Amino acid sequence: MSKSTINIREIEPQDNEQLERVIRAVFPEYGIPVVGTAYGDIETTRMYESYLTDKEIYYVIVQDGIVQGGAGIKKLKNAKDGKTCELQKMYFSPLVRGKGYGKKLFQKCLDTAKRFGYEHCYLESAPQLKEAVNMYESFGFRHLECSLGNTGHYSCGIWMIKKL
């Protein structure tokens, strides 16, 4: 049996369809609402095109040539200071969960955000994603009482921030 090849790289145009399938599959699997979440974002259908401007990036996890998940960094929409980024659309297929790739990708996003000059990283999540929330807490993210910026993800329910 040959060993699987897994790597993390920047998103490419041909990744859009595979990534959209991965992202959308997580919602019914965990019972997360599809309205007011990343499921309904127009960006979800065109992830490559959604991360082309300055100080934003999206990384994918690729296993044997197939996109199995990803996460990105982008300036928080309507943030007052311009120094806060948002970790966006961090979703994985079951094939790569629990193997440490999420932590590696998460750290890569935080390192990139810092390199871009952001001072804080904000994220939103859903209570159903307990493993993800535990990981965010282990990286020093603290819970907030309400959302920041204007993401449109009113169904998330968990808001967190970390000083970079």
Examine the coordinates and then state which fold CATH places here, giving the name of the CATH topology: Aminopeptidase
Strand order of the largest sheet: 1-2-3-4-5-7-6
What is the average of the pLDDT values? Answer: 89
Uncertain segments of ≥5 residues (pLDDT<50)?
Answer: none
Beta-strand content estimate? 25-35%
Broad CATH class: Alpha Beta
The number of helical elements comes to 3
Number of strands: 7
Distance between the termini: 42 Å
Structural class: alpha+beta
Under CATH, the homologous superfamily reads: Gcn5-related N-acetyltransferase (GNAT)
SSE ordering: EHEEEHEHEE
State the helicity in percent bands.
10-25%
In CATH, the architecture is 3-Layer(aba) Sandwich
Main beta-sheet annotation: 7 strands, mixed
Report the radius of gyration as a whole number of Å. Answer: 15 Å
Shape: globular
Tally of domains: 1
TL;DR of this structure?
By secondary structure, the chain is an alpha+beta fold.
Structural features, described:
The longest helix has 15 residues, at 16-30. Strand 3 (66-75) and strand 4 form a beta hairpin. This protein has a single domain (6-163), classed as Gcn5-related N-acetyltransferase (GNAT) (Aminopeptidase, 3-Layer(aba) Sandwich), CATH 3.40.630.30. By secondary structure, the chain is of the alpha+beta class. The protein has a seven-stranded mixed β-sheet with strand order 1-2-3-4-5-7-6, with helices on both faces. It has helices at 16-30, 101-115, 130-138; strands at 6-10, 57-63, 66-75, 84-92, 120-125, 142-143, 158-163. The chain has three helices and seven strands. The radius of gyration is 15 Å and the shape is globular.
